[in-house]
């Protein structure tokens, strides 16, 4: 099979399955829905693996055009594919996680009336994400981008009877809209400069864009900076970076498989992917890179802090996701694109694992998500416990686990990066390591250790989850454990991503790996014990142990002592309040003003109703002409002829 | 201009005038039968004009087909139906002034077109010369060779006309006796003639013989 | 030579043969239900469309002594007309059966309508154009009056017939002028003769007569009177036909006669068409607003769409003409979906005459309501639908010709149009059903899946082609770039 056939297959199989399962759900039934979608995603995964094998043999990017969507003013908008090692790797990750989530959903959504609809959404999401990944131009990428946004909205609000769920869905949608607007503006800037949106042309023009001032001015911002910053605003909304992060914790209202698939492993990484994909553009703008780096580092540290005070197990993981996305961003901003993508991949595995583990716990707890009502679960759910532990170690970057390789590579790269603001970012990231370890093991200890705190009824029914739930856990635990060992050298050493990413003009932050051929994974692990990040992590775990196992009264006292700080964390830095009170209220006031003053009075009253009245009056005048009399019609015809002939002869 | 030429012009002028007058008569006649007769008169005049133009065949066909067949049929229909044209014409007088103005304007405009020197053309297309070919032969070549395609379409047009007429008028109302030729043809003697035995068996007298 | 000519007229011959076969069924197999006539008609149309699309019916060229011209445009229009007829047949049968109107003659007349359109599409001489037009018109007159229980139909047919005959007379008169000018019926000769005599009174008179006659055929203001009457009076299945297939013939007539034949006089007819276009946009859309009868509403809206088509056409030049052809084809399929939906509703035993009849349809039959919604949104020109691109392309052409005022006027009228289309949607989706649990629900019979599926393909096609607009547009551009005469 040729490469473009494979790509088409990967794209269209989930789409077809989604359509059949969604529109024909009465036809195929529950079993039909999951068999169909799982089959489609499994085949897509196999095809993705084949594609990855092809591009491993041949590193050049393969660019296809499937069809021309439209021509407009000489610009051609096509739907096609850009297959290189980055997109192939992403395809494998997306389809693999999606497959695991599909299987897991059979167990998790077993009793839900919207069973087939859910599978349809899952497959639709997979399609949109794959479209985003394989796109060979910005517009196509944007189509996938909006697609995942839409499905995310549908899935967060999946239980739309719950007001909180539909509110969370709307919130996610609105905040993403802010980002989408910036994305569109970014596209417009690029289109105005390059006259096309294809990656090939943009990459080719990137060096020129880096020198061209925007709007034809003489100084100030370059086109590359403007486009990169605007696109990053879009990326930061999708990847939940400060200050557009507020939707992600609320999105936990959706069913847990969704949290795993969309809000941990794939969709939120779309922003990261976008920046990495456009790295040739980003390296042309030092300003944009600094912004990306600092936003990432700030997010990594401060959002991690919120995980310490959250009590809902899914929210803790959500904050951890935001924080980890911050790490990826920081890696990208430092110019270590490979490290950022590496972390994206490992994170996809271990974060999906953590979410699915949390889901397994929630299932056992009869949909109780408050960690204060759990405890001691490790005896009842050994498989979940062990796999969750693996995920946690990966998350805190314990040497040897997959997260360690990628995260330490990022921290190291930021430390060496020539980008402005790197030293501040480095400090923030190091602080983040401690915070990560603290909230992660707080969660582990609260849920799986200590005394059981649930009520008698729940406790009596505690049992390990069914095989369809635990199987994906095990399947994800393996890469969470081992992916780092396999991928460390090729991904960071520079041979895998050769030619994919743009390079910083001076100094490559990942040079410590690529220039040192003796830096094997084992050596990297061995070296970790002398790094500050390792000891910070140990300190974090120890603090968690002290506070939540050894001295359970300690957190309450700490909270009382630092009352103001605690409130700040619980209120999530008042960002939600800011959005609701300032932005929403102001928007509402402006809207009401426009509505009463502009819309109702001027437009409705004057233009719409007025013109409607005018139209009606004119129509009533015209109506009697058509009175149904044949001779009158005939007369009009002759009169028209006379008029036309007279006009023609007179001129 | 030769005398023959003048004669032709004169004959043309006469018949053309009669044609216009009789056409007017068709429109204004109060009695429908009169109108039909005026129409026949105008056909005759038109036929003469065609003959003058050298299209004898068409002139003859016009008389034979239109006058001989179509108009006779039409006259029958007109006489069978009692059409009161006066009722139909109500409103004619009321709208006459406006109609007259428009008609005059139209006449003026068309007149302008034809009065312009050489119709405003630098050169006219050469008129078709009957040439050496006989009239019918020229027509035949035209119809069955050059314009075969339009001719076939015209045939189809007539077919549609026939079907349309039948569709719109033929009714199969209950209780109306209708002739069914195919049923008549399909009749078998055995089903129409029943042989009756005037002297069935068992009656006294002669026995056992059928009539 | 002759075999080449016969091959070139393949589509016309196939449809003609199909129609004869339909008649033969009626005559020879009386007992057989008209369904065989229906199947024959369907198959002959499908085969013709298939062969046309496959490009196996003759190559481009001029045939039959100039009577028939095969070029990409004729092929495109033939295919569009064939597909539209196919859809019309599929949509109308359930309704005909339900109302006891199914007769072989109906299908015969539908096929001869199509035959007329095909002849006009590839008409190379004044003679074939005229005959094709008459074939089409005569079939329509008969079809409109075919339901004799319906006095409205007879009245509409009568009006249409008398006025149509007048228009035909005007056209013939114009043809005599042109013949006198050129000494031939062939469009190529006419075009040359016209170019040789610019501005002569004879040319002007011919242009005036042609414009009036064509404006009548297309239903442009002020000669649009027959449109709403016919749309309302004809049986629904016939309205479906009148509102779709003949439009193809109209645009073909415009292209062949005005664009190719009288192209040299485009300065003269351009202004006339512009006036007709503006009047059509104004009157059609304004009067549609006050209609409560859905079919009259669609009739007036058809006049408004004709205004759009003429707006593009009057620009002259290939660009405007291409936009006009594109708009017409798009309009035919939108109209087919809209009327098809109404026809199938009647086939279910529902009334679909007034806006109230449609209210609450979304609850009774969500799919049907959705198909109608697609058609109406497309007619209104709502963006992802195909109708949006049609309007956009026309407006772009108008703006490129620096006629910004005209474009603004057209947009305002499109907004008015959106109002009354959306009103129908509102009544389908937001108004309560007329009589809860009334006779409508009891009488509702299932519509054959075949018809429903085709309606779905038609309606969703408007959406899909709207999302992927490039194919049809480039097909039109291609067709218009290799014209013959």
Total number of domains of chain C: 1
Assign an overall shape of chain B.
elongated
Strand content of chain B: under 5%
Neighbour order of strands in the largest sheet of chain C: 1-2
Radius of gyration of chain B: 30 Å
Q: Regarding CATH, which class of the largest domain in chain B?
A: Mainly Alpha
Which structural class do you get from the secondary structure elements of chain B? mainly alpha
The number of distinct β-strands of chain C equals 2
Give the SSE order of chain C as H and E letters. HHHEEHHHHHHHHHHHHHHHHHHHH
Largest interface: B-C, 33 and 45 residues
CATH fold-type name of the largest domain in chain B: Four Helix Bundle (Hemerythrin (Met), subunit A)
| Quantity of strands of chain B, as a count | 0
Helicity of chain B, as a percent range:
55-70%
The dominant shape of chain C is: globular
Mean pLDDT of chain B: 80
Strand-residue proportion of chain C: under 5%
Poorly predicted runs of chain B are 207-211
Q: Oligomerization state of this entry? A: heterotrimer
Number of helices of chain B: 9
Describe the structure.
The complex is a heterotrimer of chains A (651), B (211) and C (485). In chain A, 74% of the residues lie in helices and 3% in strands. Chain A has 651 residues and is mostly helical. In chain A, a hairpin with a 2-residue loop joins strand 1 and strand 2 (75-83). The radius of gyration of chain A is 28 Å and the shape is globular. The mean pLDDT of chain A is 82. Helices cover 68% and strands 0% of the residues of chain B. In chain B, helix 1 runs antiparallel to helix 2 (32-52). Chain B starts with a helix and ends in a 19-residue tail after the last helix. Residues 207-211 of chain B have low confidence and may be disordered. Chain C has 485 residues and is mainly alpha-helical. Chain C has one domain (2-481). Helices cover 78% and strands 1% of the residues of chain C. Chain C contains 23 helices and 2 strands. Chain C has helices spanning 2-8, 10-28, 35-53, 72-98, 104-121, 126-144, 151-182, 187-196, 201-218, 226-233, 236-242, 245-261, 266-289, 294-313, 317-347, 355-358, 361-364, 366-380, 386-400, 404-429, 439-443, 449-467, 470-481; strands at 61-63, 68-70. A two-stranded antiparallel sheet of chain C has the order 1-2. In chain C, helix 2 (10-28) packs antiparallel against helix 5 and helix 7 (151-182) crosses helix 8 (187-196). Classes of the chains: A mainly alpha (651), B mainly alpha (211), C mainly alpha (485).
């Amino acid at each position: 099979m040729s490469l473009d056939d494979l790509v088409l297959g990967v794209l269209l199989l989930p789409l077809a399955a989604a359509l059949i399962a969604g529109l024909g759900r009465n036809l195929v039934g529950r079993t039909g829905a999951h068999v169909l979608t799982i089959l489609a995603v499994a085949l897509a995964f196999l095809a993705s693996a084949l594609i990855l094998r092809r591009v491993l043999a041949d590193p050049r990017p393969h660019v296809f055009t499937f069809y021309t969507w439209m021509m407009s003013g000489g610009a051609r908008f096509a739907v096609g594919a850009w297959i290189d090692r980055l997109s192939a790797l992403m395809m494998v990750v997306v389809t693999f996680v999606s497959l695991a989530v599909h299987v897991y959903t059979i167990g998790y959504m077993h009793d839900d009336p919207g069973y087939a609809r859910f599978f349809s959404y899952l497959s639709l999401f997979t399609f949109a994400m794959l479209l985003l990944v394989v796109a060979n131009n910005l517009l196509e990428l944007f189509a996938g981008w909006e697609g995942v946004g839409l499905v995310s909205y549908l899935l967060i609000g999946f239980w739309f009877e719950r007001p909180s769920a539909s509110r969370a869905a709307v919130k996610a949608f609105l905040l993403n809209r802010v980002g989408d607007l910036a994305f569109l503006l970014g596209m417009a800037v690029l289109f105005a400069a390059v006259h096309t949106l294809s990656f090939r042309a943009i990459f080719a023009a990137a060096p020129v864009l880096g020198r061209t001032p925007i709007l034809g001015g003489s100084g100030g911002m370059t086109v590359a900076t403007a486009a990169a910053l605007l696109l990053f605003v879009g990326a930061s909304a999708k990847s939940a970076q400060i200050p557009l992060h507020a939707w992600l914790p609320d999105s936990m209202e959706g069913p847990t498989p969704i949290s795993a698939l969309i809000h941990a492993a794939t969709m939120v990484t779309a922003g990261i992917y976008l920046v990495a994909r456009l790295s040739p553009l980003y390296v042309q703008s030092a300003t944009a890179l600094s912004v990306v780096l600092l936003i990432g580092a700030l997010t990594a540290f401060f959002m991690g802090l919120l995980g310490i005070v959250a009590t809902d197990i899914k929210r803790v993981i959500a904050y951890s996701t935001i924080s980890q996305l911050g790490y990826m961003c920081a890696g990208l901003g430092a110019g270590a694109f490979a490290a950022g993508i590496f972390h994206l991949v490992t994170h996809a595995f271990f974060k999906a694992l953590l979410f699915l583990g949390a889901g397994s716990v929630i299932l056992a707890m009869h949909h109780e998500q408050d960690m204060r009502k759990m405890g001691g679960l490790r005896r009842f759910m050994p498989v979940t416990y062990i796999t969750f532990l693996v995920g946690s170690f990966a998350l805190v970057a314990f040497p040897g686990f997959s997260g360690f390789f990628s995260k330490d590579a990022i921290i190291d790269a930021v430390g060496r990066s020539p980008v402005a603001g790197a030293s501040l970012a480095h400090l923030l990231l190091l602080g983040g390591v401690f915070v990560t370890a603290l909230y992660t093991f707080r969660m582990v200890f609260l849920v799986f250790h200590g005394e059981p705190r649930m009520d008698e009824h729940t406790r009596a029914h505690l049992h390990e989850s069914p095989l369809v739930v635990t199987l994906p856990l095990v399947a994800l635990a393996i890469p969470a454990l081992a992916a780092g060992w396999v991928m460390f050298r090729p991904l960071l050493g520079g041979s895998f991503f050769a030619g994919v990413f743009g390079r910083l003009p001076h100094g490559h932050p990942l040079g410590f790996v690529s220039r040192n051929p003796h830096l094997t994974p084992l050596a990297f692990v061995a070296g970790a014990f002398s790094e500050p990040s390792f000891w910070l992590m140990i300190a974090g775990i120890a603090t968690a142990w002290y506070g939540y196992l050894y001295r359970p009264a300690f957190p309450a006292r700490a909270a009382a002592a630092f009352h103001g700080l605690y409130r700040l964390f619980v209120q999530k830095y008042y960002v939600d309040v800011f959005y609701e009170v300032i932005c929403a209220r102001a928007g509402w006031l402006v809207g009401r003003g426009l509505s009463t003053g502009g819309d109702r009075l001027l437009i409705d009253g004057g233009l719409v109703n007025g013109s409607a009245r005018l139209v009606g009056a004119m129509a009533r005048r015209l109506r009697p002409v058509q009175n149904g009399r044949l001779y009158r019609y005939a007369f009009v015809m002759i009169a028209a002829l006379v008029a036309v002939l007279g006009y023609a002869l007179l001129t | 201009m030769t005398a023959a030429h003048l004669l032709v012009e004169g004959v043309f002028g006469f018949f053309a005038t009669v044609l216009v007058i009789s056409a007017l008569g068709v429109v204004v006649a109060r009695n429908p039968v009169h109108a039909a007769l005026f129409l026949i008169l105008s056909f005759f005049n038109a036929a003469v004009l065609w003959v003058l133009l050298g299209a004898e065949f068409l002139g003859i066909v016009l008389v034979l087909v239109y006058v001989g067949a179509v108009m006779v049929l039409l006259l029958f229909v007109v006489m069978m139906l009692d059409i009161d044209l006066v009722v139909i014409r109500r409103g004619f007088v009321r709208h006459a002034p406006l109609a007259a103005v428009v008609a005059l304007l139209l006449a003026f405009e068309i007149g302008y077109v034809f009065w312009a020197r050489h119709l405003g053309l630098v050169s006219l297309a050469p008129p078709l010369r009957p040439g050496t070919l006989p009239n019918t032969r020229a027509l035949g070549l035209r119809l069955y060779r050059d314009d075969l395609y339009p001719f076939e379409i015209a045939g189809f047009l007539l077919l549609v006309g026939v079907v349309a007429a039948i569709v719109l008028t033929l009714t199969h109302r209950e209780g109306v006796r209708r002739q069914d030729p195919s049923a008549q043809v399909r009749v078998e003697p055995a089903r129409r003639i029943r042989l009756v035995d005037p002297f069935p068996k068992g009656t006294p007298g002669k026995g056992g013989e059928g009539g | 030579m002759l075999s080449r000519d016969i091959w070139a007229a393949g589509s016309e011959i196939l449809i003609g043969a199909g129609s004869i076969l339909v008649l033969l069924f009626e005559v020879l197999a009386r007992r057989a239900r008209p369904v065989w006539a229906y199947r024959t008609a369907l198959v002959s149309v499908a085969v013709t469309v298939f062969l046309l699309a496959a490009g196996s019916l003759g190559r481009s060229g001029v045939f039959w002594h100039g009577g028939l011209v095969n070029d990409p445009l004729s092929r495109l229009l033939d295919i569009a007309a064939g597909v539209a007829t196919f859809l019309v047949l599929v949509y109308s049968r359930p309704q005909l059966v339900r109302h006891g109107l199914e007769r072989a003659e109906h299908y015969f007349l539908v096929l001869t309508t199509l035959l007329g359109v095909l002849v006009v599409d590839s008409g190379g001489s004044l003679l074939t154009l005229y005959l094709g037009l008459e074939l089409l018109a005569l079939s329509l007159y008969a079809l409109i009056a075919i339901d004799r229980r319906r006095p409205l139909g007879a009245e509409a047919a009568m009006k249409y017939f008398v006025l149509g005959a007048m228009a035909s007379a005007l056209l013939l008169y114009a043809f005599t002028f042109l013949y006198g000018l050129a000494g031939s019926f062939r469009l190529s000769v006419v075009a040359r003769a016209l170019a040789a005599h610019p501005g002569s009174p004879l040319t002007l008179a011919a242009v005036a007569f042609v414009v009036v006659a064509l404006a009548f055929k297309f239903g442009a203001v002020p000669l649009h009177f027959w449109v709403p009457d016919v749309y309302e009076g004809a049986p629904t299945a016939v309205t479906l036909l009148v509102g779709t297939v003949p439009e193809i013939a109209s645009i073909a007539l415009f292209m062949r006669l005005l664009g190719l034949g009288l192209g040299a006089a485009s300065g003269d007819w351009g202004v006339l068409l512009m006036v007709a276009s503006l009047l059509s946009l104004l009157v059609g859309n304004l009067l549609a607003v006050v209609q409560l009868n859905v079919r009259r509403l669609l009739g007036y809206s058809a006049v408004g769409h004709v205004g759009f088509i003429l707006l593009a056409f009057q620009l002259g030049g290939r660009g405007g003409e291409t936009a006009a052809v594109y708009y017409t084809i798009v309009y035919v399929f939108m109209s087919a979906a809209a009327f098809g939906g109404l026809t199938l509703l009647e086939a279910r035993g529902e009334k679909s005459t007034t806006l109230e009849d449609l209210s609450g349809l979304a609850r009774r039959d969500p799919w049907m309501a959705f198909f109608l919604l697609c058609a109406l949104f497309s007619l209104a020109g709502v963006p992802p639908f195909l109708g949006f691109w049609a309007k956009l392309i026309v407006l772009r052409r108008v703006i490129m010709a620096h006629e910004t005022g005209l474009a603004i006027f057209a947009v305002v009228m499109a907004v008015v149009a959106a109002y009354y289309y959306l009103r129908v949607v509102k009544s389908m989706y937001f108004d309560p059903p007329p009589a809860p649990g009334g006779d409508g629900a009891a009488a509702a019979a299932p519509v054959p899946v075949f018809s429903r599926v085709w309606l779905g393909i038609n309606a969703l096609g408007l959406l899909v082609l709207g999302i992927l607009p490039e194919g049809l547009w480039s097909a039109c551009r291609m067709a218009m770039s290799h014209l013959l005469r």
